[in-house]
Structure formats: C-alpha cells, structure tokens
Amino acid sequence: DFKKRFDLTMGVRADRENKTGALNSFFVPEIAAPTAVNAQKSFTDASPEIALAFQVRAHDMLYVSSGRGFKAGGFNPASPAGQESYGEEHAWHTEGGVRRQYVRGQVTVNATVYLVEWTALQVNLPNPQVPGQFYISNVGGARTRGVEVEFDAHPFRGVELFASGGSTDAVFKAGSNSGGIDVSGKEISNTPNFTATFGTQLSRAMGASATLYARAEVACTGAFQYDDANTEGQKAYALTNVRIGVRGKRVFMEAWVKNAFNTLYIPLAFSYANFAPSGFIGEMGHPRTFGVRGGVTF
Q1: Contact 204, 211 (CB under 8 A)
Q2: Which terminus of the chain is more exposed, N or C, with fewer CB under 10 A?
Q3: Per-residue model confidence as pLDDT tens digits over 212-224
Q4: Regarding beta strands 122-126 and 134-138, do their DSSP bridges make them parallel or antiparallel, or are they unpaired?
Q5: Residues near 206 by beta carbon (within 8 Å), at least 6 away in sequence
C-alpha cells in the first residue's frame, strides 16, 4: 500500500504435476480396436501475476491486472488413435476497470475490459468412433477480448434496479486445428457474443417481523456456436424469471416461475455426424417451470 491510495500486488505460483497413465480400453462388441496407454509425464510451470489499484475517492477505484495461467496436460481414458495424451495449456490474462458509486452510494457502476491469450488451448471433443465419449485435445492458440458493465441502483426504499451486460469476441488463432479440421479464425464454441441481465426487486415491510418481496429479471444470451468448426449454433434468446414471496425472521415462503414465456432453446449440442441424422446431438433447455418453496432458517 502507498499513501492509502495505491495498492500493488505481486505474486507467483509454482506448479509441478506428475501423472501416470495405465489405461486399457476395449469394446464389446468390438466396434473399435482396443488401445493401451502406459506412460508417465511431468508438468512444471511458474505463473506470475501483478495488479495495481488506485483509490480515486472513498468509493471510486481504478485497477489493472495481468497474469499467466497454467493447466497441466494428462491422459485420455478413451480417444481416437494418437490422441491418448494431451499437453499443457497456458493463458495470459489482462484486465482493467473502474468501480464507482453515485448519489451517496445509491448507484453503483462497474466496468471492465479484458483480454485473454491462450496457447495450446485444451478442449473437449466428441470421439467420432464411439458415441457418447469425449476426449481432451490441444487445438492451438486462441484469443478472447471483451467488455463487461454492471449497474445497481436503489432509487427508493424497497426498490432495487439492476442490469449487467457483456460483449465477447472469442476466436481461434491461425494454425489451430480441432479434430483434424482447420479452425483458424473460427469462433470458440459455447461462447455467446453477448450476455445481458436486467430486472427489478421490490420489497415492503409487513409489520415488524415480515417482508413481502417480488423479483423479475430477464436474462439474454447472444448467439454462439456448438462446435469449433462453426457448422451449427444457437441463435440469441432470452429467459424471463419471476419470484414472489414473504420472509419472516425464521420462516419464508415463495412462488416462482422460470422461463415464463416458454422460450425454446438448445444450450448444449455436440457434433456426431456419423450417428445423428442432423449431425448433432443436443439437449433442450428447461421449458417453463414453476413451483413453490418454503423453509425455516436458524
């Protein structure tokens, strides 16, 4: 700390992992040849990090940080031939932002920009020979950059307004290969190009020992790709959730509705060209769901 306004943080983390693989895979009936892995690998790395924060005023702060991440490699229990093991992954992440409060703390705004650079990114890929099995592989380099903003306000007693949003640009770098396919410049799978949430919560005291509350929020998810080759994806969608209840000192009871407008979406799908007529196996998102819950706190 410097003059109660500057905070400097520096550190380094050392990792060493030793992994042994003794894996024998076979199939009944024999839809694929058996495989055997008997190997040992060690992974060693040092990850530095530095962060600087400046307290502009009592509740206003600017900050920037940068650090290096590490994920050890390992062995796949089942995989296509030649993919029995995978290497370590590294990532440099840089972030900067501001946190501010207005109107005597009734309004809070946070804003952040970030950049992540990956080397030898590890991804889960479907085994093209065996349905329902996945293996880890290093696809090459990737980059993610974006911005996030959060807003929270209490304009009146018992009234809260909140919103948050972010935009992300996540792509593979030149020379990246996923499952034998060149994915250079493609979007990283399962990464929405934007996210946003906004809503309100109202509360009112009902005597000295109970509070009535209601909350409504809309969560928006931008378009994203299901696979690294970007052959299929999910369009942007929004889910509306509502909750109303009463809470006492020890007891609470509430009713809730999730996905109130019964939006149809598929949040997760995998490429299986040889087994699925559409080329993908996916799972539908939860439909409109409602219920009640209650409890006692101590």
Answers
A1: yes
A2: C
A3: 999 999 999 999 9
A4: antiparallel
A5: 212, 246
